[in-house]
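Pilot study result, target chain (469 residues):
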Amino acid sequence: MMTLAATRADGLGGRLLAMVNAKCLADKLGCRFGFTWNRRSIDDMQFHIVDSVDKVFATSFIEKHWLGETIDAARYGVLDGTRFTRSSLAADARRNGSQGWICDDFRILKSFRQGWFRAMLPANRSARSRHRTFGTLGFSDPVRATIAAADGRRFSRPMAALHLRSGDIIHGNYRSQMEFCEKVIPAPLAKAIVSKLASKGLATLVIGQDRATLDYLKSETGAFLSDDFGAGQFEDGTLKAFFEMALMARCRRIYAGSSVFATMSSVMGGIRVLRPKALFGDRGTAAAILDELKARQSDYHPLEAAFGYQSAFLLMEDSIGPAQARGILEKAAALDPQNPAYALKMAAGYFREQDYRGGEAILKAFMLREIDAGAENSMQIMQVLTSPSWRGHVMAGDFELYFAAARAGCPYAAACSAHILHTALGRTEAALAMAALSRKAEPANRLFRDIELTLRTAAAANDGSPLRV
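Predicted structure:
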């Protein structure tokens, strides 16, 4: 029997959602369901709480479905966003001799094509299927007791949940990649959401990771926290996470970013997750963030406030003028000066206005500061510039602006362009030409020499010729 294996090694929500999806699909296809649970990756996590497999699941469930710490991926195919049917999977297994499929894509159920009539039936909608499948996961006694404890809590008023994720998106390296704003609701937006929900007759349960922010919002808005319903009794982080997911699952609706923690709550409760845009729209959301920061910026952690500015900028980037965009980014950069994304976006704004000197000055100042700091990763700005995304590259819309600035005689923009051409676009010869522009402008610049050497080494490796130095 073919196996559908959930093998994610990220946070608790991500692992559980992949398991629910894979098991739901396995049940539909008549396949075996299996999952991995990697202890090493748990120990390496800074911002996630995940316990070992025997603490989360019952022994009988582990014996039946656990595939171990890892599997031999070479013996499995991978199910991604490509459309498939029961028969196409069977044919693929016969052709490739695979043992099964790795099934980690969160949207996998939308890729499974059933007959058109069955697909239209409400009972076959993926949300309902996932909700039913969650009930078939065999959790350990402590986890089941924790979920039951949350189910037993009673709300005195109709309640909506607000999930404020922070962790690595706000305080880690992901804050520089400018593609996670849809995953997180900025803390400076929370007051406006609580007020809007109150006007609809709903109290708000706020779930989050930053204790100071949660206490502040409770004092300012009267919102409920999970501690108001007994979360403080759970010293174990994993059990507390299950309690909070189950508590959110009992609300009328959930407002959150695309965080899988909130998605798992929606699966548990069979309820919808809504984005803040559903309340305010893009411009209204950005305006609410900026209004709050204008009045109360000092009430928030600097990185929370900076992320608020980042979110507002990205919501309005295509609809505001360069001066307003620059003002927002300058405020973010003042709060988070080590974040290269703000320097890159400000430089691109200058280049868009053909103010090449202004953009070049920002790039030069930031890049030299990175080098002078002597950090292990002294050229993080280059990595952020070409950061990959499921849509291509996060800053792809700015690439041509950097090329134009390079052609206009800006050596730091040329260095950035060389990196774009080589790393993002695979055009090493064109990248060498851009690097030559930097070297010609400043022959003694060590950074420009290093960039050119890296490109020449890559070019030599590609054509098999020895590197000439």
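One observation from the pilot: Confidence is low (pLDDT under 50) at residues 120-124, 465-469. A full batch analysis is planned for the follow-on phase.
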